[in-house]
Each structure stands twice: as C-alpha cells, then as structure tokens.
Specification:
With 220 residues, the protein is α/β, with parallel strands linked by helices. Helix content is 30%, strand content 15%. The N and C termini lie far apart (39 Å).
C-alpha cells in the first residue's frame, strides 16, 4: 500500500520504520525538507518528499505533527491522494505545554480531531495519539498473544476506519472502535485510555470511564 507520513518525529519516524519493514511504499515529509530525512530514508528505504508531495497517490496519509502546525499545512494537501484516502490524525492538543490556546477547542468544545478535520478539509481517523512511540517498535505481538496491546480508533468514515484498523492489526496491535470523531474526546490527553498499555477489554473499559471534562493540565 502507498502511505504518506507527514511528520518524522518519534511517532512518524517509528511508523516509517515499521511500515517499510512490512513492505509498504512509504513517503515521508517534515517541515524542514527532504534533505533532513536522508538518514531515515537510508535506514528504512522510505522516500523523502516535500509536505506538498507526501499524499501523492497515497491510500493512507498519517498526519503526525504538533497541533499548532496543522493550519500551516498546504492547501489542497490531499488533492493528489487516491479517492477514499484514509487520513490518520495522531495529534494531541497541549495548550500549556506547546500549542497555545485554540478557541474552537476551548470555547466550542470541538474534539481535537474534529478541529483538525476542519483545518485540512477532510475526515480523519484518530489513532496512535496515546501510544508511546517506542511501543510501535517494541510491543507488536501476534494475534491472540496474551500481552498484545489494543489501540483505540475513532472516526466517522467506516471504510477509512476499517482500513486503518487493518493496518494497525498488521503492525501487531488489536484495535477497539472508539466511536466517531465527536466521541474521540474519550482518547484525548488526560483520559484513562491515554498511554494505556493493555488489551482490548481494558481499553474498552477505559474509554467508557472517560469524562468529557478536560482536565486542568490540558486546558489553556
């Protein structure tokens, strides 16, 4: 599958490593330009590209950049992707720590991923936002393994969500359907499932226990 990854930090870099190892055709971009990705490309066989070209021909696009940088993504970013492209949003809103205040999240009560959808003009699937980057490399397990982790996945587009869940399961993790994007507050920072290393039953229980009230640490 052709996959574009925008962001080569901890999550983006490790997804590049794993997805290329699984045989996918991966293009990777960051804000500093393809010349800064030579080492990752040589390590993985991924193709370093500009952000503008990251989605070209892609069936899946992963946006894994700071939330505050999402509005700076180029207009029409996804126009060159295939029809029905699944867009994964791994982002988290950290107002005090990094992103500053975003009024639509704070005042309108938008989930972080609904806000991201509005910025890019395309539905997203929220996944990997509460996953430790190192676990992507170190915690894959075969289906049925007692210590196989499960990751919550939220989104409105059922076809795209199924594609993303299949990809995550190929990576070595179970998935739990966390509902639509308006339900994705259940996996935002500060919730019981955020950073949880557990199986499907515990992840489902943690999603149920979440409160829609954003904790003080994650409010501006």
């Amino acid at each position: 599958m052709k996959i574009g990854i925008i962001g080569a930090g901890n999550i983006g870099g490790n997804l590049t490593r794993r997805l290329t190892a699984l045989g996918h055709d991966v293009s990777v971009a960051n804000s500093r330009g393809p010349h800064t990705l030579t080492e990752l490309a040589e390590e993985t066989g991924a193709t370093p590209v500009t952000v503008e070209d990251a989605a070209r021909g892609a069936e899946v696009v992963v946006i894994t950049i700071p939330v505050k940088a999402v509005p700076d993504l180029p207009p029409g970013l996804l126009d060159s992707a295939v029809e029905g492209v699944a867009v994964i949003d791994t982002g988290n809103y950290y107002p005090q720590q990094r992103d500053g205040r975003i009024a639509a999240i704070e005042d309108e009560g938008l989930t972080e991923s609904r806000w991201t959808e509005r910025q890019i003009g395309h539905p997203v699937i929220k996944a990997f936002n509460g996953t430790y980057a190192q676990d992507i490399l170190e915690r894959p397990r075969p289906v049925g393994a007692p210590d196989r982790m499960a990751l919550p996945v939220a989104g409105d587009d059922e076809s795209a969500k199924a594609k993303v869940r299949d990809l995550i399961e190929e990576l070595g993790f179970d998935t739990v359907d966390a509902g639509g994007i308006d339900d994705s507050w259940r996996q935002q920072p500060g919730t019981p499932v955020y950073g949880l290393r557990a199986g499907s039953d515990e992840v489902a229980k943690a999603l149920e226990q979440a409160s829609p009230e954003r904790s003080a640490e994650f409010r501006a």
